Amino acid sequence: MEIRNALVYCEDHKFRKGTIEIQGERISRVRTAESEISSSSRMDCGNPGGAARTSGGSCANGSGETGTASVVVQLDKGVSCANGSGETGPASADASALDAHGLYAIPGLVDVHFHGADGCDFCDGNEESIDRIARYEAKHGVLAICPATMTFSEEKLMKVMRAAAAHKNGSGADLVGIHMEGPFVSPKKLGAQNPAFAHAPDIAMVRRLAEAADGLLKIVDIAPELPGAKGFIREISKDIVISVSHTCADYETTRMAFKSGASHLTHTFNAMPGIHHRAPGPIPAALEAGADAELIADGVHIHPSIVRLAFRLFGEERMILISDSMEATGLPDGTYSLGGQAVIKRGRRAALASDPDTIAGSVTNLFDCMKTAVLDMKVPLETAVRAAAENPARSIGIEKDYGSIAPGRYANVVLMDREMNVRGIVQRGRLVKLDN
Length: 436
Ligand SMILES: [Zn+2]
Hints:
- This protein is 23% helix and 25% strand.
- By secondary structure, it is α/β, with parallel strands linked by helices.
- The protein folds into two domains: 2-107 and 407-433, Urease, subunit C, domain 1 (Roll), CATH 2.30.40.10; 109-395, Metal-dependent hydrolases (TIM Barrel, Alpha-Beta Barrel), CATH 3.20.20.
- Strands 1, 2, 3, 6, 7, 8, 24, 25 and 26 form a nine-stranded mixed sheet that branches.
- The longest helix has 13 residues, at 127-139.
- The chain is globular, with a radius of gyration of 21 Å.
- Residues 113, 115, 148, 181, 324, 361 line the site of zinc ion.
């Protein structure tokens, strides 16, 4: 299979016109023109690749129904594709091609911090919820997921780890990791974490949970001011990424955490002290340590000016866009649940029912966060794509398979138009979405 005539997001983080060749599940070759296409001309002055073809293609799904395709598809050999419902038909990728003329081809996104979507929470701890979340994410261009746990009892977390370990990838986004956001959180910076289960750092507990997760536990969060934090970080960081999170720690304490082995900062600016010129707090400590910095660019959690500031401070290679999305994502306004607490969703905002000033996760998927960062916050497209795909993949050690368009990677490609609407998704070499 190949994707022709796309504006391909290349390994050097620039767009070039070209073709992505795919063999089986993986990219075999990327052929592109020499000249790059600049971000400013592309986003502001129209599409140098030409207008996207919005008619002329049609395709059939497994049921035999046809839908109008938004890109021209050459259905040479039995490739079937999704109709407007987002359902996937069986696909055979042999000798087929997509003409993605005028569309951008970016890597499938990687979300390393979110809790749920489409009415399900990862902490439901069952296959039905994982499957539903994975399908929702894939439909929105997020093709690798590392969902997060909330602050719960070890017993409940154990159930979540076991359910994840038992999950088999194959439908929806690939489950590539678990981010353990609680329970080693500061009781004074809980956000939407449940105070009943806040816990001192516990090496043995993490070892037990990691074993149950069967290699999937990739990130463990900790407030570094908690007793025993230093020894915990030294020990656990040998195998698992340690992220500073839900903390009241000052600059010196956070510096100690990064010197001891932490390398990641959870939702930068949220649930931690801000930057003060005489009390710098955790953010400058993370910056000076070269840590990766997560950021929620949903338009609710962080002012656009601070989003731009964060990208300038940490640089495009260290920023990681996350959604931190909860179960109401993709659903209408109403009352939902996060970490055992009632949450009210109104528009793009979700807040604790018991404390409406406390934001409780987001209700925006990662693709839409990336889109918001670019279209509303003026983060350059190339930078935002890197922060939503390559950087998160690298942060959890899966960059050889996910996060970029390069030979050897899984053929996970999102095709989008210049308004950043998803027009097609190829997952592991199969066309899984094609609609308007
Ligand atoms: Zn979270």
